[in-house]
Amino acid sequence: MSEQPAWSGPGVIFSFFKLRESSEISQEAMHTWFDEEFVPSLLATGTIKSVTLYKAANPNYNKQQLLLYDVPDLSSIQAGQLGDFAKSSRLSLCKGSIDAHVEFEWRTYSFVQLYETSKRSEGKLKLGLQVPMGGSGC
Prior knowledge:
globular, 4 strands
């Protein structure tokens, strides 16, 4: 088995999730756990810059919810610096590990390139890429 290459630089983690059919907790309890325990414990590590929750626009997707984690340096994730973030509920929202109640699918991506409109965002490199928006051309 080959060794995994070292991660470095900024990136994102996608965490698609849904309640397991066997779970006895409600959607509301799951979101309370995310809001009050899971996300604050992740942010407290200093490894994650921000977490954003999304709901699928397409109701046919298997996992309807997505947590998007903004990671300033992926090497800290690979090195295990997330540490002991909340996997169980101190508020007694669920029994045992959240993994017994919620099915997660995690994917990690490293930054490659930023594309944006000609308006420059503060603190970001302007690439000078121009894309024709109609008219004659290729």
